[in-house]
Design brief:
Layout (H helix, E strand, L loop, with lengths): L4 E5 L12 H13 L4 E4 L11 H15 L5 E5 L4 H14 L3 E5 L8 H15 L3 E5 L1 H4 L5 H10 L3 E6 L4 H11 L4 E4 L5 H6 L4 E4 L6 H12 L3 H18 L6 H9 L16 H14 L5
Parallel strand pairs: 1-2, 1-8, 2-3, 3-4, 4-5, 5-6, 6-7, 7-8
Amino acid sequence: MKYKGIMTALVTPMDENGLVDKQSFANLIQDQLNNNIHSLLVLGGTGEYTALNMEQRKIAIDVAISEVNGKVPVVVGLLSPGLGDNIELGKYAKQAGADSVMAVTPFYVSPTKEGFIQYYEVLDKALDMPIILYNIPYKTGINMTNDVVEKIVGKIPNVVGMKVCSDNMGDVIELIQSVGDKISVLCGEDYRAVSSFITGAPGAITASSNLIPDVWVKIYDLVQQKEYDEAVELHKKFFPLMKALYREGNPGPLKAALNMIGLPVSSVSVPLLDPSLQVVEELKSKLDELIVPVR
């Protein structure tokens, strides 16, 4: 399996008790499907993986698999720092019908290069299902370098993709050139997606596509048609909104914006906080300017 197109990193609607709001989550997923999104990521960072206990994570998986019903691939995030939780949740995801898991680098312990490799080998042996690597050094404090990725891809056939969150486009291009024929190198930054597409990335995992899935699908389609100028202009048009969504801790502003357009997803969990009044006003202004439709 090689992933391409736009994969939305879904928010997880939760009630005041921190439990998954099943109906709101189902509504959000149906909105994504109605807007022709290419695939969905459940329980990524935007999905507040760390705020949910194991039982609630499993409930989120069940809702997503049921609602999608095979229409698009469903990827489940494994964002714990160690193997225990990730193997348990990965096995559950596989049994539930998930197409792949996305496993973040094992943070906090600061592994060596060989440690990275063996970590993914153990995870692969335990799960035996498609794996997307996830490197986000500005959140985890560790960086899985391109040479390590090449070794992992060479050793583990089940690795089918990688979400790359990097400020260095040179590194991204190098990664596409070295392993892009074997796995899907997916941009993990809303800001850099178009440039990544143009330089060879087959897709992106984005958070703002919760809010504007139709826009992201259009941007992707324009690039595939080699209408690069139009793709860049559309991205630039919505860039101020994307920027507002990251003014404060993600997904606080994003959830607020979804609530504004009639897709209720509730609030975020502490230590994240609802966005400040200033950010709320900015979001309202940008949504009005861009005529983002009420769902």
